[in-house]
Design goal:
It contains 15 helices and 5 strands. It is mostly helical and 376 residues long. The chain has 2 domains: 3-287, Fic-like fold (Orthogonal Bundle); 295-375, Arc Repressor Mutant, subunit A, CATH 1.10.10. The strands form 2 sheets. The protein has a 3-stranded antiparallel beta sheet. A two-stranded antiparallel sheet has the order 1-2.
Amino acid sequence: MNISKYSAGKKVQRLQYQSFEPTLINTNWHIDNDELNVLLSNANIKLGELNAFSQLIPDVDFFIKMHVLKEGTKSSRIEGTQTNIDEAVQKEEYIQPEKRDDWQEVQNYVQAMNEAIVNLEFLPISNRLLKQTHKTLLQGVRGTYKLPGEYRSSQNWIGGSSLADATFIPPHPDALDDYMADLENFLHNLNLPLPHLLKIGIIHYQFETIHPFLDGNGRIGRLLITLYLVSNKLLVKPTLYLSDFFEKNKEHYYDNLTNVRTKNNMVQWLKFFLEGVRSTAENSIQTFKDIIVLRQHCEHQIMTLGKKQLLAKQLLQYLYKEPITDAASISKELGINISTALRLVNDFIKLNIITELTGYKRNRVFAFENYLKLFR
C-alpha cells in the first residue's frame, strides 16, 4: 500500500448511527513521500542521540522517574485532569481534598507505565499486556466502573453527549477482536520493511481509532508509544514521552488524527508524529544536560559542609527521587534522627539548594526548586 494513497476505512450504518470501521493495517506499506523520509531521518538521529546520552548519565533511573511523572501529568491533562508536576511529586496528604482524584489518576498512570516496562521483560506488547496496563490505569479512579482491563462490549463515542451528536463513533464492539488481533499482528510482523517510527505512528493512530476501551484510550495509546520504543530496543531506557508535545499542540494532535479518518491523510499525521519525536528527543537531551549541570553545582556546594558531606550527598540523591519532601521523610530515608535531619535541611536552605514552601514553623515542606523547574 502506498502511504500517500492510504484509505482509512468507511462508515457503516448501524441501527441509529454510523460507526467508523477502519482499514486493517497488517499489510505491506510503501513510503512514497520524500518529505516523510527526511523527517524520519531527523527523528531517528535525535532519538539515537537521546538513547546514547541516557546511557552515559550515572543513576539515570532517578531522573527517569521525573520524566514518567511529567508524562503522567501531561497525558492526564490532555484528558481533562488539572494536576501539575509540583502536585504530582507530592504525597497525597499534601494535596487539597478536591484535587486528590486528579492526583490519583496521575499516580495510576505512573504505576501503569512502570509495571508495563517491567512486564516487557517477560511479556511482549500484546492485547494481554494492554489489558493489564489498562486495569492498573483505572483502578480506584473515575473509570473504575468502565471495565478496567477489558475491551468494551458496548458502543462508545468521542465528542457530543450521545451517539446522536457524536464527533466520532469508533468501530462496533463486535469487530474489536479482529481489529485488535490485526494491530497485534502488525506490531510483531517482522516481514514488513517499515521503519519503527512510522510503524508506531500508524499503530498509535489505529489504536485511537479503534478505541477498544470504554475509558483511558488516549492514555494507553500514548503509553504504548514508549513501550514500543523500549521493546524494540530503540531506547535502552524509557526516556521519550510524547504527551508534552501532544498537550502543547493539542488541537493539531486531534485534527491530524481526525484528518486520517475523514481525508485519508496518513502522511500529514506521520509528519506531525515524527516532528513530535524529534522535538521531544531534543528537549529530553537538553533536560539531561541541565540535570548534569545542576548536579555538579549542588555537589560543589555541599563540599562546603565538611564532615556532613556524606549525609548531604545522600540527601541530594534522595531529592532527585522526591523533590518535594519534609524532615520526617528525610529522617526515615537517611536513617537519622529528626534533629539531624532538620539541621541538614537548614544547611541546604542556606546553600539555596531547597526552599521552604509553607511558611510554617512546624510541619514544613521543602522543594528542590531548581530541579522541578527542569520538568515544568
